[in-house]
Amino acid sequence: MNILKPLQILLILFVLEQGASAGFFSSFFGTDTTLTHSPKSDAKDVSPDVVIKLSYGEDIYHSSLSTNNIQLTQLSSGKKIKGSVSYNSANKTISFRPNALLQRGKYHIVYKDILRRGKAFFFFRFYTLKKVEFDFEVTQAIKKLVLDKSKIEINLTGSETIHVQALYEDNTTKDVTQDVEWLLSDNSIVNIDKNIITPLKEGTTTLQAKYANKITKSIVITIYREISGYRLPPEPDEALNNSTLLGIDVNNNGIRDDVERKIIETYREPIKITYMMQTAKIGQEILENPIGAALEHSDKMDKLGDCGMYIDDLNISFDILQSVKFYENNMYNTKARVRAYLDYNLALSGGSYGSGPADWTADACSFDVNALLGVAK
Question: What's the domain range around 82?
Answer without folding.
Answer: 22-138
